[in-house]
From TrEMBL:
It is found in: Endomembrane system. Residues 1-436 form the Major facilitator superfamily (MFS) profile domain. This is Major facilitator superfamily domain-containing protein 8. The gene is MFSD8_4. Pfam families: MFS_1. One of its GO terms (cellular component) is lysosomal membrane. GO terms for molecular function: transmembrane transporter activity.
């Protein structure tokens, strides 16, 4: 989905007087894409790969719908004054971050509640822990569609009103071009901050399965709960970042609080313990003891709360005589499992909390500074570039996990993350004086002032 976003969003530069129509169109795409994902069974007649191609089409449609991120960012930039912009951008960033964590939370709830699929008279229409998430997303999209209706959503263009309040002689002044070096530096900082959050999303489940030998369902539930808690913390930090930006220079808040927290959090994710990781059984191994990590409630009637089997403290260190059949670290595929220690859960939790506290500060203030640097003009194209950079980070996240984590392990993965955070911090410090709102010159400043006679020209 993310690569579709990165391709589409830079092309979004809606020049009309309303964003309502394109927003409605993208929300309709969102509803259709998720509904299609929930009925992939209809593609079975197309052959063995029918459902595979159907899933690609459905995710492509959902990816196209995500272009509304550009529209909303552009609208907020035009619907707020310069003083309100940081708070407005923080609210949008908080909403997006909350959306990132709602998905895993819903997946965790559905995994615990729907123990067996619910079938209908139609073979292609059934409800399980996968299709239920698609239908829930489609329902949320429908609510979004209702909110966008004209009798609820009213548009306001404050930036145009601000420009109208300028002196009449200054209204015809051509705005200067943005500081491309400063804008580029801000985009890099935005990319790095979003990349670490995307990596956490992508890496969380396989990482805890490798580290602690948890089953798929247990990993989904516990990671979902962790992301839910992190979502609450991040929303609070988005609000805090807006408050701090009103009292202090937002550049100093971003570079003195946001990025240092990300650097510390990434560094703490490096393995520092002594315990060995649980071994995943090799298909060719023999004379081993298999340990099952499947909750007993998966095959039994639901007679108790569905999450009580998922105990976070139930972790196992590896003994070469024991192994896990479906989870644990695959020593044959990932040689680093042999010499990399297990990360204690408290250390991992502290690292996660610190990253969650730093991410909102970086994201909201990066976007606010970026928007102010563009000046009081339509920002559709530039917001498309910003969203495209975010989409690029969501492309590289899975690739990073697939290759760097799988073949090189957590030392290189989190070491590279820490290094990238340090680079982002340093380059933004170098560009500190450039990270300011666009200066709009007056007619006198453009022409110079050589006395009353010059006012005629």
């Amino acid at each position: 989905m993310s690569n579709r976003v990165s391709l589409v969003n830079p092309c979004i530069q809606f020049e009309a007087s309303t964003i309502k129509i394109p927003c409605i169109v993208t929300v309709i795409f969102f509803i259709l894409g998720n509904a299609l994902y929930s009925i992939l069974k209809v593609f079975d007649p197309l052959g063995d790969l029918g459902t595979y191609y159907g899933m690609i089409v459905s995710r492509f449609i959902v990816g196209l719908s995500s272009a509304n991120v550009t529209l909303t960012r552009s609208y907020v930039a035009g619907a707020t004054t310069l003083k309100e912009r940081t708070t407005g951008i923080a609210i949008i960033a908080a909403s997006q971050a909350l959306g990132f964590v709602v998905g895993p939370v819903i997946q965790a709830l559905v995994t615990g509640i729907i123990q067996t699929p619910l079938y209908s008279n139609a073979d292609w229409l059934y409800l399980d822990k996968y299709t239920a998430c698609g239908w829930i997303a489609a329902a949320l999209g429908f609510i979004n569609l209702v909110i966008l209706m004209p009798f609820i959503f009213k548009e306001h263009n404050i930036a145009e009103k601000e420009r109208a309040l300028m002196k009449e002689t200054d209204q015809n002044v051509k705005l200067p071009k943005p500081d491309y070096i400063g804008v580029g530096g801000t985009l890099f900082g935005f990319f790095v901050a979003l990349f670490i959050f995307t990596l956490l999303e992508t890496l969380a489940e396989p990482f805890v399965q490798d580290e602690y030998g948890w089953s798929d369902d247990k990993a989904v539930v516990i990671v979902g709960i962790a992301l839910a808690v992190g979502g609450v913390l991040s929303v609070g930090m988005f609000a805090v970042s807006g408050i701090l930006a009103k009292k202090y220079d937002e550049r100093k808040v971003m570079l003195g609080l946001g990025f240092p927290l990300l650097i510390i959090g990434s560094f703490l994710a490096l393995p520092w313990g002594n315990a060995e990781m649980p071994r995943k059984c090799d298909e060719l191994s023999s004379n081993v003891t298999y340990t099952s990590t499947v909750p007993t409630s998966q095959y039994a009637p639901i007679t108790h709360f569905p999450f009580e089997d998922y105990d976070v403290s139930d972790t196992t260190t590896n003994s070469h005589e024991d192994c896990y059949e479906d989870s644990g670290c695959p020593y044959d595929e990932q040689p680093w499992c042999e010499y990399t220690p297990q990360i204690p859960i408290p250390q991992l939790a502290i690292s996660y909390i610190i990253i969650i506290l730093g991410y909102p500060v970086c994201q909201s203030l990066c976007q606010a500074i970026y928007s102010k640097m563009l000046g009081p003009k339509p920002q559709g194209l530039w917001m498309g570039v910003l969203t495209g950079v975010g989409g690029l980070s969501r492309i590289l996240g899975p690739i990073f996990v697939s290759y760097v984590y799988t073949y090189l392990g957590p030392y290189v993965t989190f070491g590279a993350l820490t290094g990238s955070m340090v680079v982002a911090e340093l380059e933004l410090l170098v560009l500190f004086k450039r990270l300011i709102p666009m200066k709009i010159p007056s007619v006198k400043e453009l022409k110079g002032f050589d006395g009353p006679a010059s006012e005629k020209y």
